[in-house]
TrEMBL record:
Residues 43-277 form the NAD-dependent epimerase/dehydratase domain. This is L-threonine 3-dehydrogenase, mitochondrial. Pathway: Amino-acid degradation; L-threonine degradation via oxydo-reductase pathway; glycine from L-threonine: step 1/2. InterPro entries: Epimerase_deHydtase (IPR001509), NAD(P)-bd_dom_sf (IPR036291), NAD(P)_epim/dehydratase (IPR051225). It comes from Glossina morsitans morsitans (Savannah tsetse fly).
């Protein structure tokens, strides 16, 4: 599961080079200045067994120590998750249970990943309301009570058909038409309200489609993950979006680095509590063209479904100039880098792991 990539991120960020001590000093200085801590922060990650949680925990544990990063979810973890560091059961709809966790573990930072994604949320709106809205209410109130620094991710799905799509600025009309998008706008606004009303250290990044080698989890941008698994396994893929559907994207290594740099950014550098971040924008046909360099006989069909309507209401190009200006956000991966890493990662950790060294697609690496 993109093991090499996260290992590289940890090494590049924390383990080598003259900039290592500078980064660590900035992070520690920010922690001390804004929370008064004289120790590494104790961090709770909710929804920790999803696409971002496990790898985020690896990154933060490399910086702050395994015992200081607590992964949590409501599902049974695999052996690797248990062995990598603390794991606990945490139901975001159980406020008293969350209070007990924060008190017992002396939590300082809360990273809230629990959510139903866009396509899944449309299939079960009542559950999406409970998880994505009631759950956010709980963690926001929890953070206020215990003076936590809290991170809640938002998304390109927080915008709608009335939003400018190319580019989409940081502040503009939103009005999304999915329950996922509505819940994310709600999270942005309630977090900003608690910041202005109560001084809550609320931080939120609007992520584009996040691409990793983990199997897709129900998002509209997940074609850009599924195509690697299917193409490398069979040499074929049926895409549920039109070939010219342009959407903002980001490789997971950039995503995790953005999150950590934003959490470490000194409060006086942040002109906003919610920022767009991105790395690239591409279409399915552009991705196929790059992937065909590795799978020359790749065959892709296009059969748009209801997810096309969702994609058509989302930004095509994300303007993240404010993040680059305020806290010096810089992406590392473009489309060519992304495809190269994804082919190698999916091939090694999924295709070869199942089939040995044999696979039906002919790969040129």
């Amino acid at each position: 599961m993109f093991r090499k990539c996260v290992t590289t991120l940890v090494q590049n960020t924390f383990c080598s080079g003259p900039s290592t001590h500078i980064i660590q000093e900035i992070c520690q200085r920010s922690i001390h200045n804004t929370t008064g801590l004289l120790r590494p922060p104790k961090i709770l990650i909710t929804g920790g067994l999803g696409q971002l949680g496990t790898e985020c925990a690896k990154l933060l544990r490399a910086q702050y120590g395994s015992e200081n990063v607590i992964l949590s979810d409501i599902i049974k973890p695999n052996q690797a998750a248990v062995e990598s560091g603390p794991y606990i059961f945490a139901d975001i709809l159980d406020f008293k249970g969350l209070q007990k966790i924060v008190v017992d573990h002396r939590v300082d930072w809360l990273i809230h990943f629990s959510a139903l994604l866009s396509a899944v949320g449309e299939q079960n709106v009542p559950l999406a309301v409970r998880v994505n809205i009631e759950g956010v209410h709980n963690v926001i109130e929890l953070a206020k009570q215990y003076k936590l620094r809290i991170f809640v991710p938002s998304t390109i799905g927080a915008f709608g058909p009335d939003s400018p799509r190319n580019p989409t600025p940081n502040v503009t009309i939103q009005r999304p038409r999915t329950i996922y998008g509505v819940s994310k706008v709600h999270a942005e606004l309630i977090g900003e309200y608690y910041y202005h009303k109560f001084g809550l250290d609320f931080r939120c990044l609007r992520f584009p489609g996040v691409i990793s080698s983990d199997p897709p989890g129900g998002g509209t941008t997940d074609y850009a993950v599924a195509i690697f698994h299917e193409a490398l396994r069979t040499g074929k893929y049926t895409c549920y979006l039109k070939p010219n559907t342009r959407l903002p994207m980001m490789y997971i290594e950039d995503c995790l680095r953005a999150l950590h740099e934003f959490m470490c950014a000194p409060d006086d550098k942040l002109k906003r509590r919610v920022y767009n971040v991105t790395a690239m924008s591409f279409t399915p046909e552009e991705l196929v063209e790059c992937l065909s360099k590795y799978i020359p006989n790749l065959h892709v069909n296009y059969k748009p479904d209801n997810r096309q309507l969702i994609a058509d209401s989302w930004p095509q190009v994300f303007d993240d100039s404010e993040a680059r200006r305020d806290w010096n956000w810089q992406h590392k991966y473009d489309l060519n880098n992304l495809v190269d890493f994804m082919v190698k990662d999916v091939q090694e950790n999924y295709i070869n792991a199942v089939n040995g060294s044999d696979t039906r697609a002919t790969i040129k690496i």
